[in-house]
Amino acid sequence: xxxxxAVDSIDNMARRADKIxxxxxxxxQYEYAGRHLHDWFPRLPGDVAYVQHLNRVADVLxxx
Length: 64
Fold this sequence. Notes:
Blueprint: H1 3-36, H2 47-61
């Protein structure tokens, strides 16, 4: 193995390790949010329901 190949191999391993750590950090944050913030926020309606609601009240909210 040449020196360049060794350096490239180490760089690739470092990139993979960074990706794994980033994925783990994201998963940990997502799980934390799910555990601790779930009770603070009500179940929000989906986008479709929200848009339908806006369409129903659009005439009332229309500014002239």
